[in-house]
Amino acid sequence: MSANVSFTEPWTGTLTHLEWSTPRLLLLAFINIPILSIVVNALWQLLPRPKSQPPLVWHWIPYLGSAPAYGRDPIGFFSQNREKYGNCFTFILLGRRVTVTLGAQGNDYVLGGKHTQLAAEEVYSPLTTPVFGKGVVYDCPNEKLMEQKKFVKVSLTIDKFRSYVGMIEDEVKEYLNGDPEFRIWQTNDINEWGSFTLDVFAELTILTASRTLQGREVRESLNKNFAQIYTDLDRGFTPLHWLMPGLPLPSYRKRDAAHKKMSSFYQSILKNRRENLAEHEDDDVMASLMKQKYRDGTSIPDPEIAHILIALLMAGQHSSSGTLAWAMLHIAGRPDIQEALYKEQMESFGTPDGGMRDIDYEKLRELKVLDAVVRETLRIHPPIHSIMRMARDDIPVPATLSAPSEDGVYVVPKGDIVLASPLISQVDPAVWEDSDTWEPLRWYDEKGVAAQANKQYNEGEKVDFGFGLVSKGTDSPYLPFGAGRHRCIGEQFAYLQICTVISAMVRRCEFRLEGGVPKPDYASLLVHPLPARIMYRRRKFD
Ligand code: HEM
C-alpha cells in the first residue's frame, strides 16, 4: 500500500507529488505522535486553569507525569514542590491525578476526612485484594473493615502481650544460636567482631510474629516452602502491581498462585482446629477470630479468617522489620545511646550475680531510653510515606492549607486521589529542631515539641469508629501509625515486638556501624534502608 501526498513548494511555487509507502507513513506517525502529544500536553498546562484547582506540577510526558520523580524520592519530590506551590498541589501519576496536602493540616484533611467523601478502599484495593484475598480489608464496605479491625483488636489483650515477650526473646536467642550470620556469636568469643545483613530483621520479624500472633501451626510451617509462597506473595505487593493491576507478567501469576496456596494453608489449619477442638486450646488471633461474630450474628467464614490473617502477616512484616532495621542501624552508629540502652537493661533486669532476668512486659513498657529510640526511629523513618484516599466528591481544601491568595479556596475534584505524607510533618524543620537528625534525647524533654506532638497524637479527643476508642489525633505533626478510622491496630503489638527484639539483642551484643546509616530504598511500597551490614560482638551474657 502507498499514499500520495501533494504540496506546493512555498519558495518555488511548484506542485510536488510524493508517493509514500505505508512503512514510511507509520514511521512518521511513530516519531511525530509522541512529539505532538508532548507539545499538546505542554500547551494544555500553559492554559489558564480554573482558579479553584490546586496548582499542577509541571511534567513533560503525558500519562507518565511526575511518576519518575515521585518514585525515585517521594520526600524530595514533596519538599521541592512544597517550596514552589505551598502545602497543596496536584501531580500526574501514570494517568491519575494525585492531590497532595502537606503539613499537620494536610494530614488532618486526609486522615480526618469523612469516609463518605474520602475512601481508602478505592485506592488500595487493586493492590491488596489479590494479595490478602476476597471479603476483607479493602474488598468490603468500610463498616465491615471496622468490624474486622475490632475482631483483631480484642484478640490482642494485655495478657497475651505478657506471654508474647518471653516467646519473642526465645526466638531471638534461638536465632543467635543457630543462624549462620551469627557464626562468631556461636563461637562464644567475646573479643571477635562479626557482621550481619539487614535481612536478619525480616527473618526475626516473621519468626516472632508467627510464634505469637499467627499461631503455632504457622510457626511450625516456616520452612523453605512457606518462605517461597510468602516471597511470591510479597513480590506482588509493589508499586507496579498497584498502579498497573492485571499485567500479563510472571510476578502477577506467581502472586495469584501464592495467594491460593496461602489461603488454603490457613483454611486447612482452621479445618484441623475445628475437627480437634478439644485437643488444642489455642490462644492466638486465629482462635479468637473463630469465636467472634459480625453484628448481623454471622460467624466469620473460614476464607475471611484466612484472609484477615494474611493481611496481618503482610501489614506487620515490612513495617516492623523496616523499623527494627532502622533502629538497630542508628543504635549501632551511636555508642552513647547503645550504652544507655544497655545500662537501662542492667538496671531493670540485672541480677545480683551480674546476669540478667528475662524481659517482662510491665518493665519493658517503662524503659525510657528504649521508648525514645523507637519513637525517634518512627519519626524519621515511618515505613509508609504516602497515605491515600479517593475523593468521592468535590471537596474544598481548608483555606489555611491553600496558598492564601485572591484565588480563594482550592477544591479537590471528584475522582482525584488525595495524599497525605505524615513523614513531611515529622521532619518539618519549622516544627522539629535539627529535624533530619536521629536524636532520641528529644523525647526525654516532657515539655518539648516531641512530647507535645505525642500527647496530641495519643491523648486528645477519643472517637470510636467501630473498633474501640482511639485518639483522633489527626492534626498532630507526629502520626507514625496513621490516624482516624484507618489508624493502625498493630501499634501495641509492633511496639512490643520491636522493643523486645532490640532489648534481646542489646543485652547480648555490642554493635558498630561502618560507613554510616544507609539511605532509604523507595523502590518498595514500604520504605526500608538500602542493604548494609551491622558489626556485632558478643557481650558476656548467658
Ligand atoms: C494501618 C503503620 C504495624 C496492621 C496502618 C497505617 C499506618 C500503619 C500508617 C494507616 C494506613 C492508612 O491510613 O492508610 C504501621 C507501622 C507499624 C505497623 C509504622 C510498625 C512499626 C502493624 C502490624 C499490624 C498492622 C504489626 C498487624 C498486626 C494494620 C492494619 C491497619 C493498619 C490492619 C488498618 C488499615 C485500615 O484501616 O485501612 N499501619 N503499622 N500494622 N495497620 Fe499498621
Automatic annotation (TrEMBL):
<comment type="similarity">
    <text>Belongs to the cytochrome P450 family.</text>
</comment>
<keyword id="KW-0560">Oxidoreductase</keyword>
<dbReference type="InterPro" id="IPR050529">
    <property type="entry name" value="CYP450_sterol_14alpha_dmase"/>
</dbReference>
<dbReference type="InterPro" id="IPR002403">
    <property type="entry name" value="Cyt_P450_E_grp-IV"/>
</dbReference>
<dbReference type="GO" id="GO:0016705">
    <property type="term" value="F:oxidoreductase activity, acting on paired donors, with incorporation or reduction of molecular oxygen"/>
</dbReference>
<dbReference type="Pfam" id="PF00067">
    <property type="entry name" value="p450"/>
</dbReference>
<keyword id="KW-0349">Heme</keyword>
<keyword id="KW-1133">Transmembrane helix</keyword>
<dbReference type="InterPro" id="IPR001128">
    <property type="entry name" value="Cyt_P450"/>
</dbReference>
<keyword id="KW-0472">Membrane</keyword>
<keyword id="KW-0503">Monooxygenase</keyword>
<dbReference type="GO" id="GO:0020037">
    <property type="term" value="F:heme binding"/>
</dbReference>
<dbReference type="GO" id="GO:0016020">
    <property type="term" value="C:membrane"/>
</dbReference>
<feature type="binding site" description="axial binding residue">
    <location>
        <position position="488"/>
    </location>
    <ligand>
        <name>heme</name>
    </ligand>
</feature>
<dbReference type="InterPro" id="IPR017972">
    <property type="entry name" value="Cyt_P450_CS"/>
</dbReference>
<keyword id="KW-0812">Transmembrane</keyword>
<feature type="transmembrane region" description="Helical">
    <location>
        <begin position="25"/>
        <end position="44"/>
    </location>
</feature>
<keyword id="KW-0408">Iron</keyword>
<keyword id="KW-0479">Metal-binding</keyword>
<dbReference type="InterPro" id="IPR036396">
    <property type="entry name" value="Cyt_P450_sf"/>
</dbReference>
<dbReference type="GO" id="GO:0005506">
    <property type="term" value="F:iron ion binding"/>
</dbReference>
<dbReference type="GO" id="GO:0004497">
    <property type="term" value="F:monooxygenase activity"/>
</dbReference>
<protein>
    <submittedName>
        <fullName>Cytochrome P450</fullName>
    </submittedName>
</protein>
